[in-house]
Amino acid sequence: MPKPRLQQLMSERQLWHARGAGVARRNTQHSVSSGFAALDQALHLGGWPVHGSTELLCSQSGIGELELVLPSLAERSRQRPVLWLNPPHLPFAPALEQHNLSCHQHYVLRCTTPREQLWAAEELLRSGAFSSLLSWFDGRPLQDRQLRRLHLAAREGNCWHLHFRDIRCQPQTSPAPLRLSLSASSQHLHVEVFKQSGGHAGQRLQLPRPASLLWQQQPASSWPVYRQAPRRRLNLVASSRPEGALQRLPLGLDTLPRPGTPH
Amino acid sequence: MLFLCLRFPLLGFDALPPNEKPPADGPAALHDKGRIVLCNAQAQQQGVEAEQSLSTALSIAPGLVCVAQQAEAEARHLHNLALWAYRFSGEVSLSPPNGILLELSRSLRLFKSLDQLYRRLVAAFRQRGLVFHTGLAHTPLAAELLSLSNTPVKHTANRQGELKHSALQQLLAALPSHLLPLPPRQLEALNNMGLRRLGDVQRLPLAELRSRFGKALPDLLERMNGRCHDPRPLFTVAEEFHSERQFDGGLHSKEQLRFPVSALLSELESYLQRRLLLNRELHWQLLYLDGNREDWIMPLSHRVFRRRSLIDLVMLGLEQRPLQGPVEMLTLHCKQFLPLNQGSNELFNDEQALLDQQEALTTILDKLRLRLGDDCLQQLHLQNNHLPEFSQQLRVFNPADHSPVSHHPAPPVGLRPSWLLPAPAPLSQRDGQLYYQGALHLLQGPERIDSHWWQQRQVRDYYIAQREDHSLCWLFKDCLSQRWYLHGFFG
User: Fold this and answer.
1) ipTM score assigned to the predicted complex
2) Domain named UmuC: which ranges (chain B) (predicted)?
């Protein structure tokens, strides 16, 4: 009699139902588009969450960790400002402007001790004055209790808490509903969603870095040169105009080979 | 019309500074120019009376503690009381030396009934430990006279605030005639004529009284009965706010200060409401038992006075400051004010949300300033400059500065990293290879920035490079010193 048993199992609360549990919750009320179609597809909410903690685990700067969140921050910072709490370096205003973020909506707060930083983070998240808070905590990894307080404060203040942590924190459990680990290859940013609410986790994506950054210039030795410049003719040119010969060299960047071509 | 007179018989003692206060459980008196002015119940039991000479009083009651009267402090205290009473009525006038007059007929609707109003009034005075006498009548003078003999309110009016006229007349008639505010000679004359009660005086024809006592007495009677207008100068609010709380024996912990802080802030709140102003700072002064003073000025950036959040803010600030000893007196002083922007409710939610958000920002800013220092929160600003380290500026955020985007330079054309190092980090070079925590491979460049020739010339060639761990870096070669530096990351 398999059927009654199945019914019995279904009615028990201990069993998790994939169908009802919110894969269907993909709507714009609970999420903000990340600006990357592949990432939106991989997240069950259909984008970054509106509030609460999101952990990004990466161990170095410069792998595209900000590029991942800047489109969403541009969307959010229209209403309420963004706060950077103890960033490892300075956020660079001209670059933010290039990403369509208006820089006067960005605030930087520096705390000296971890205790003060925790206090400030919780107050800022709860205040409801900021749309997002980007935080970096140095020193010892935060306890589960502290992380939970930050997450709850973020939900209360309707604030997106983007928590940048070291990759070594990955095995530690965390109350944050969305956790991603970031790593880099030469052309891509690798994202692994190893925890998310509303369905299964474990999605792996490769997001390409902007082509303009990776555009590789050929070494000068392989540049095309006007090889058949006859010596005789050079001698014919008046000696007062030596730069005439220089002008033929391909100095402008638009004559360089396009990206992607092997060198 | 309904006038309530509140009289504070022990005002002289209440107004004394804490270190001069006589002990509450022994006989005590105030003196002025060798005469007793005021004495407490214990002293009265021993036979001390007002107008006695100091030496007589001391010979009657050897344990008597005599303190000089401080008229100025009394006036200030009375002023504070009037300020406080302002919340119950729009028409408050002082009745020196120790009384306040409130016109209540227009406040009855607000407080539903006289009973409710009176209960709130009494509760507030009990909380502050003040002794007060009352008198309720249809004219200011009658109320003053009734308060001199401490007539309970319920004797002259019912719960809804309607006067019982016959009872009122009886009570007035029963008052001793020496309570009338007349020169001593005329009071003496009344007494000699056997007119001991006010009723005896009222029974006489006015014309007779006028011929015997002059204009003053009939005028008084007319004003008392309401047949003649009796205008009183209305109490007006002072230009600066000042209030204080005194603690007998001193407070030892910060948590104990919470209630006085809350009470002072609520006084300030009603003061600000009355003048339609907003304060820019709180000037606290702590007076310790050993006589030391400590000043503490708390700048504020709020747009609406919210007492509850301010209490938390003050307590947060107190946490950072060590108390030097038991606190005897806490003073709050405010003299810088701004006109209050009258908040109007917005029709559309967006505007309201914006206002709420600004409010939240100023609240959190006040908190951060208190705990982390004044210049902790910085805002990014774009600058018109070619050198990357000068093309942005971190300015201390100041909400009062209303011109954040007055001039907006255009961002540069070239590729810029999202992380900038606070100072360029020198790179090491081995065998023609650059290293910064790993080998660096140049991808593209250079972008030449040549600037500041008028100051100290900077010629830099900026390159984008990839490190071994695949992170993208922003390097430059200083063309004048031929050295390489790391200046940012493409995060």
Assistant:
1) 0.78
2) 29-147
Given A92, A184, A185, which is nearest B420 (Cβ)?
A92
Considering CB atoms only, which of A93, A116, A186 is closest to B466? A186
Q: Hey, of B380, B383, B468, B486, which one would you mutate to test binding to chain A, going by the most A CBs within 10 A of its CB?
A: B380
Q: What would the mean pLDDT of B446-471 be, rounded to a whole number? A: 92
Closest residue of chain A to B374, computed from CA coordinates: A109
Q: Enumerate the β-bridge partners of residue B486.
A: B425, B475
pLDDT at A215: 85
- Based on the structure, what is the number of domains in chain B? 3
Q: A88: which residues sit within 8 A by CB, 6+ positions away?
A: A61, A136, B419
Q: Is residue A250 situated within a structural domain?
A: no
Judging contacts by C-beta atoms under 8 Å, the chain A residues touching residue B391 are 93-94
| pLDDT higher than threshold 50 for residue B479 | yes
Q: Are strands B377-382 and A106-109 parallel, antiparallel or unpaired?
A: antiparallel
Residue of B nearest to A125 (CA): B364
Task: Say if residue A249's pLDDT is above 50.
Answer: no
Contact between B420 and A97 using a beta-carbon 8 Å cutoff = no
At B344 the pLDDT is 59
Whether A158 and A128 have beta carbons less than 8 Å apart is answered as yes
Tell me how many domains chain A contains.
1
* CA angle, residues B162, B168, B171, in degrees to nearest 5: 150
The residue in chain A having the minimum alpha-carbon distance to the alpha carbon of residue B464 is: A213
- Residue B438's Cβ-count burial label (10 Å; 0-12, 13-18, 19+) is middle
Chain B contact probe: residue of A76, A90, A92 with most B CBs at under 10 A:
A92
Model confidence pLDDT, tens digit, residues B456-466: 999 999 999 99
Which of A91, A99, A103 has the CB atom closest to B381's CB atom?
A103
Q: Of the segments B8-22, B281-295, B404-418, which one has the largest average pLDDT value?
A: B281-295
Query: H-type helices in A52-208, by residue range?
Result: 65-76, 93-98, 114-127, 144-156
On whether residue A155 sits in a domain, the answer given is yes
Q: Are residues B12 and B107 in the same domain?
A: yes
User: What's B49's DSSP letter?
Assistant: -
Q: Give yes or no for residue B481 having a pLDDT over 70.
A: yes
Q: What CATH number is attached to the domain comprising A117?
A: 3.40.50.300
CB B311 within 8 A of CB B258: yes
- In this prediction, residues B185-195 reach a mean pLDDT of 88
Instruction: Give the residue-averaged pLDDT of B262-278.
Output: 86
Count Cβ atoms below 10 Å from residue A123 Cβ, excluding itself: 18
Query: Are B12 and B157 part of one and the same domain?
Result: yes
Is position B310 within any domain?
yes
Q: Residue B435: is its pLDDT beyond 90?
A: yes
CB contact under 8 A, A89 and B419: yes
- Minimal Cα–Cα distance from B452 to chain A, Å? 19
Q: Which of B357, B404, B443 sits opposite A80 (nearest CB)?
A: B357
Closest partner residue to A62 (CB to CB) among B367, B445, B491 is B491
Q: Considering only CB atoms, which chain B residues are within 8 Å of A92?
A: 388, 392, 416-420, 488
Residues of chain A with Cβ-Cβ distance to B381 below 8 Å are: 93, 103-104
| Nearest chain A residue to B444, by CA | A217
Contact B190, B179 (CB under 8 A): no
- Residue A231 forms part of a structural domain: no
Block residue for tokens 């600030």: B317
The residue to which tokens 């009338």 are assigned? B180
How many A/B residue pairs have CB atoms within 8 Å?
161
Facing A89 at nearest CB: one of B379, B415, B422? B422
- Whether residues B12 and B146 share a domain: the answer is yes
The answer to whether the Cβ–Cβ distance between B357 and A212 falls below 8 Å is: no
> Do B394 and B369 contact (CB within 8 A), yes or no?
no
Question: Do B354 and B423 share a structural domain?
Answer: no
Query: Could you list the residue range(s) of the whole structural domain that residue B86 is in?
Result: 3-16+70-172
Give domain status of residue B330, yes or no.
Answer: yes
Asked if pLDDT for residue A180 goes beyond 80, the answer is yes
